[in-house]
Amino acid sequence: MIVGAMKKDGYLMTVMSIPSPPPEWGQFQLGPLTIHTYALCLIAGMIAATIYTQRRLSTRGAENGVVLDIVLWAIPLGIVGARFYHVLTHGEDYFYPGANLWDVFAIWDGGNALYGSLIGGAVGAFIGCRRTGIRLWSFADALAPAMLVAQAIGRLGNYFNHELFGLPTTLPWGLEILPTDTMFPQNLPAGTLFHPLFLYEIIWNVVGVAIILLLERRFNLRWGRAFGVYLIWYGLGRSWLEAIRIDPSSDAPLGIPANVWASFVAIGLGVLLIVVQSRRHPEPEASVYQTGREPKPTEAPAAEAGPAMRPADSLAGESDRSTAP
């Protein structure tokens, strides 16, 4: 946060704000490659979520490394779903006369919808869980707080991309956006500050991690119920953030942005998941593996000296040798 001064009505006033990073911080060259900071934030979030999910599953009886076998399906399909959901809800940014249709695939420029990643990632997780034998709901419960960790880290990428900000504000933590930035609204004067939605969501997600962990200690949040809490928490936060976002997704019925409707759906699914699974599975979760897919215990290797001699055979041998001439 920086402190500056401005003159208004003849008075010198102190103004605090959050500066946007210089545009050159958004990418750098590594030999012939262009490395985008946004992509690094996404990758860091994925790595953190994978490690945290594996740790949670391991404490529940899963084999080490099993999460990698699942995320190898979930992450690619989640990225595809995130990008295409964004493109579909921001069609006017990609489909217009003279548009470069290759921009649809320019994921490094930002524009990845979390709800799209949930849809694509769920398909990938289903495939990965079927192949590894892990219960889908067990994986989802272990993933719930890890998803919020990944989203909090990933939102830093929006900061470096100068995106995901809200309506103008005079609050001391207002975000600075350069008037020359393509995201700056043309109808507002230079020096206007905006709500830092990326920061609001980071804080919301971190608090959500603490809430899920606290509820897990007090209640039986298994069989998908922890993931239900995640859907409710994230849906609530995203609905009010989208309401003050300055570049919302395309309007849907009743003039409400599509992402707000998606947030309402997420909240409803979270409540339904908790209610249904509480009735279907009031019992504790016995195993994170599907029935009959539990890993077999590793057998000790046979002795290299050959099969052990039975006691009776040993005694018989001694007796024979003792009576031999």
TrEMBL record:
<feature type="transmembrane region" description="Helical">
    <location>
        <begin position="136"/>
        <end position="154"/>
    </location>
</feature>
<comment type="pathway">
    <text>Protein modification; lipoprotein biosynthesis (diacylglyceryl transfer).</text>
</comment>
<dbReference type="Pfam" id="PF01790">
    <property type="entry name" value="LGT"/>
</dbReference>
<feature type="region of interest" description="Disordered">
    <location>
        <begin position="284"/>
        <end position="325"/>
    </location>
</feature>
<feature type="binding site">
    <location>
        <position position="155"/>
    </location>
    <ligand>
        <name>a 1,2-diacyl-sn-glycero-3-phospho-(1'-sn-glycerol)</name>
    </ligand>
</feature>
<keyword id="KW-0472">Membrane</keyword>
<comment type="similarity">
    <text>Belongs to the Lgt family.</text>
</comment>
<feature type="transmembrane region" description="Helical">
    <location>
        <begin position="258"/>
        <end position="276"/>
    </location>
</feature>
<dbReference type="GO" id="GO:0016740">
    <property type="term" value="F:transferase activity"/>
</dbReference>
<keyword id="KW-0808">Transferase</keyword>
<protein>
    <recommendedName>
        <fullName>Phosphatidylglycerol--prolipoprotein diacylglyceryl transferase</fullName>
        <ecNumber>2.5.1.145</ecNumber>
    </recommendedName>
</protein>
<feature type="transmembrane region" description="Helical">
    <location>
        <begin position="193"/>
        <end position="215"/>
    </location>
</feature>
<feature type="transmembrane region" description="Helical">
    <location>
        <begin position="227"/>
        <end position="246"/>
    </location>
</feature>
<dbReference type="InterPro" id="IPR001640">
    <property type="entry name" value="Lgt"/>
</dbReference>
<feature type="compositionally biased region" description="Low complexity">
    <location>
        <begin position="299"/>
        <end position="312"/>
    </location>
</feature>
<feature type="transmembrane region" description="Helical">
    <location>
        <begin position="105"/>
        <end position="129"/>
    </location>
</feature>
<comment type="function">
    <text>Catalyzes the transfer of the diacylglyceryl group from phosphatidylglycerol to the sulfhydryl group of the N-terminal cysteine of a prolipoprotein, the first step in the formation of mature lipoproteins.</text>
</comment>
<feature type="transmembrane region" description="Helical">
    <location>
        <begin position="35"/>
        <end position="53"/>
    </location>
</feature>
<feature type="transmembrane region" description="Helical">
    <location>
        <begin position="65"/>
        <end position="85"/>
    </location>
</feature>
<keyword id="KW-1133">Transmembrane helix</keyword>
<keyword id="KW-1003">Cell membrane</keyword>
<keyword id="KW-0812">Transmembrane</keyword>
